[in-house]
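Course exercise 7: structure representation. Students receive a sequence record and must write out the corresponding structure in token form. The form below is the worked example handed out in class, using Chloride anion exchanger-like (733 residues). Read each field label carefully; the graders check that inputs and outputs are placed in the correct fields and that the protein name is recorded exactly as given.

STUDENT ID: A-19
EXERCISE PROTEIN: Chloride anion exchanger-like
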Amino acid sequence: KEEKIYEVTRPVYSEDSFAEQHKKIYRKHKTILNHVKDYLTCDSKRAKNAVLSLLPIISWMRIYRVREWLLGDVVSGVSTGLVAIMQGLAFALLASLPPSYGLYTAFFPVLIYFFLGTSRHISVGSFPVLSLMVGAVVTRLVPEVGPPANITDFEGLTQDQQRVLVASSVTFLMGIFQLTMGILQVGFIVVYLSDTLVSGFTTAAAIHILVSQLKFVLGLNVPGISGPLSTLEEIFVQITSTNICDLVMSILIMVVVFIVKELNDLYKAKLAVPIPIEVIMTVIACGVSYGFNFETRYDVDVVGKMVSGYESPIPPSIQVLQESAVEAFPIAIVGFAVAFSVAKVYSIKHDYTIDGNQELIAFGVSNIFGASFRSFAASTALSRSAVQESSGGKTQIAGLISALMAMIVTVALGFLLEPLPRSVLGALVIVNLKGMLMQFREIPYLWRKDKLECVVWVGTCLGATLLGLDIGLGVGLGVELLTVVFRTQFPRCSILANIPGTDLYRDRKDYLHTFETQGVKIFRIPAPIFFANTEFFRDKLVEAVGFNPLRVLRKRNKALRKIKKLLMKRDHGITEACVDLQALDLPTDLKNLPFQMNWNAELPDNISVPRVDLHSLILDFSAVSFLDISAMKGLKTMLKEFIRVDVDVYIVSCDAYILEKLNSYMFFDDEILTSMFFPTLHDAMLNVFEKYNENRIRGWVLCFNDSYATQPLDGDYRSNVSVVMFPGFTSQF
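STUDENT ANSWER:
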């Protein structure tokens, strides 16, 4: 295949010469006051956009295709409704609530999201991780064994009513947090929860869920204990009391549901609607349990009395809000992060946009409204959303229909679910954990591809498993931020070399055939420079060039002092009494010398100065996104150290914003000039070639004979000076 070739003929530019020939547009940046004025300014167009943003239903209802979409939405709504009903009943157990309240979560939040949500495909309702996090607060304030917390609003309430009050109050506070974040436009907060962190967190949550459901599967009476290890310990203590009927029924249901789900995945292209195996098994289990009277004959724990209809709204308990504020915030973050992640997947697939801030508002209002009617935390579940999308759902009309189905069951058909064994619900929860538990397979993949990402996954999973989901989320965020700090504080710096025949420069360790110009070093910094990595950057640069410029400067100044001291002693009989240590860091003063120095020439034995074979240092700033004040000070000091040992320093590909910052902070002076900056690396290299090819002549170098150190200088000092020919870069004196 013939390679394409391009040729460009242009002058060699520095930043100064480029600015002279190409006039730049200087934009006037708005002040904070101007931004506030613009934000508060209102006109008809902004009012219309605000209404459309706040009520996304208007946008998609205007383009709704009744003939093409309605049938799909109805079929999808029915399918999703069946799944939502079963999951609502099962996930209510995770929240330590009576199962009937799971149907509330499948109804009330969906009504609000229908009007305010920007995603057309997610199924709003209960989510196992959130249910478990809410359940942790419920069992802490209202334990199964022992008195509840000292809360005035608990007086006169049964244990179930107390738990419902706690769950609804936590959900109300969760909604307040989400609504506040949406109003403050901080939807970007979800970017701090990486896919790796969410994967590790949800895997830990799956472990918590699995352990919490074992007591239902085994038919044991295990009190609410914090942590899976303590729960497992209690289960093993009671293992001999396992209800065989519950265990056999649970195993049978898990096997059947697992097989059918695998068949659904295998033949999803041929199936118009996935087989609703959870619903089928629930109906069969209800019939068998009722027909054989499992509750009395085999002592099986059943769902029991279902709440018929909807109860009147209740206000949240202020004391519960105060007690649960710490737990409610991570619940709000996790709920939004999961919903936004799922919504983003489907928005990309179906080519429409979602608004993170509006999603926060939608879920905030949905949870506040739902909590007022005794529902618990709502988000979305990937499995339920997959059913809604794959079965033909096009808009949230499918979600509305699923909510109506939950309402029908709550109002008219709830009594049919009363003989349903709780072990069946526990089995359905466990079998639906397959996707989250299979995330363990990511560990070897992450270890091979990115070990720091693997550390984030394992750290989050272990933290959330052992310390609890709320603290574990904080641990995961801490580990994730530490990896970011590690990557920026200790970046992989490199020395670049030219690819022969091109204007490209790459890491010299990565290519077999490269060309390095003698006396020139190209050093690349692949990260922002700030207070935490300034010293690391300096150390790596010193390692790359092979010498410490400050040490060389001090050695040269000390050597020059010895030379001047001998000259002064010979001519005037004066001996210096002391040495100013600060003066050793100043530029070498070669004035008033009767000769020109070349520090790379051979010097007497008692004068030791490190040899510097470098004449040009090029710093590639193409990957440097910002400099803070500490970094500017450190960079300025470092550049001066190199300049003072006769090394020309060039900075290339520097961002325009950084250049503006350097000018505004008075970075430039008599030593550090704007002419050091070049737009590209090749421009700087061509400048180096031009400069040193012109100056490459044979120069004279002068050094004293060894005898001067032990003998006084007699007569003209030039008689004790030898002339050495050296092909350096100095001129003849």
